[in-house]
Design goal:
With 83 residues, this protein is mostly helical. Helices cover 89% and strands 0% of the residues. It has two helices and no strands. Helix 1 packs antiparallel against helix 2. The two termini are 26 Å apart.
Length: 83
């Protein structure tokens, strides 16, 4: 009976850790995606003329803010692994 309880407890702990790893990976991928989009918008803003240039620069700033938010969420999720 003790072996069954220990096995169930181990499975519960590992499933929680796995969920946190999944969150970390997902948020990290979102942050990377936003950084790529930021670079694309910054490049587009550099090669286009006004007023489109301003639009691309603003979009790049929005992507940068979203990337920062996702990176922060991934860091928080990574910190919770094993707790």
């Amino acid at each position: 009976m003790k072996k069954i309880i220990a096995t169930v407890a181990a499975l519960l702990v590992s499933s929680v850790a796995f969920a946190q790893v999944g969150t970390t990976v997902k948020e990290g991928a979102k942050a990377t995606s936003e950084k790529v989009q930021q670079g694309a918008q910054a490049t587009a803003g550099a090669v286009t003329s006004e007023p489109n240039s301003t639009v691309h620069k603003v979009k790049a700033k929005v992507h940068k803010a979203k990337a920062h938010e996702h990176a922060s969420a991934a860091k928080d999720a990574a910190g919770n692994i094993g707790k």
